[in-house]
Amino acid sequence: MVVLDPGHNGGNAAAPGAIGAPVPDGAGGTKACNTTGTATDAGYPEHAFTWDVALRTRDLLVAHGVEVVLSRPDDTGVGPCVDVRGALPGQVGAAAFVGIHGDGAAAGGSGFHVITSSLDPAGPEVAAGTDALAAALRDALVAVVPPATYVGSGGLDDRGDLAALNLATTPAVYVECGNMRNAGDAARMSDPAGRQAIAERLAAGVLSFLE
Ligand SMILES: [Zn+2]
Hints:
Blueprint: E1 2-6, H1 16-20, E2 22-24, E3 30-32, H2 46-63, E4 68-70, H3 82-92, E5 96-103, E6 113-117, H4 124-141, E7 156-159, H5 163-167, E8 172-179, H6 183-190, H7 192-210
Parallel strand pairs: 1-4, 1-5, 5-8, 6-7
Antiparallel strand pairs: 2-3, 6-8
C-alpha cells in the first residue's frame, strides 16, 4: 500500500483562517496548516494539477495490484493540514508516502525535483528507504522531465521545513513535478497527455521502489 498526497486543495483559497492555523512542523515548531499552492501564468492551479496526477497515478498503481490511499477525497475541500497528511502513511500501514506538487519558482528555472527530509526523523532505516524512494522516482521521472535547473542537485533536494516529510514514519518524499511558472513546464503540466506521462513515470518509480 502507498499513500499518494495531492498537494493543497481546491477549497483552501476560500478558507484562509483554517489553512493558516498553526500545526506541528515536525521540527519542534509550527507552520501553517496548508497553503493555496501556485498556478501557471494562465491560471491552471497547482491543486488541480496534483489532484489529476494523483488520480492517474493511483489508477496505474491499482492496475498493477498496489493498494493506494489518497490523502484527500476530492479537489473541492479544505486541507487536510500538512501534519495530518504526514501522519497518514503510518496510520494506514503504507510502505511509502508520495506527495505530488508543482513548484512556483522564478520563470527561468525548469524541471522536476524530489524532496526528502534532512532531519531523518524516523531513524536511519526509514531514512534509507526514503533515499531509495527518491532515487527510484528521480530515475523514473527523468525520462519525461529534466531535473530541476534551479534547485537541488540531479533532481534531488533535502530540506528540513516540510512538516509532512518530517512527521512521516515511513519512507516519504515530495515530488515537485515541474515549475508551473516556467513556460515549458507549464505547457507539459497543463496538458492531459503531459500529466499522464508524469503519472506513468511516478507509478513506475513507486513500483520500482516496492520491488
Ligand atoms: Zn505545492
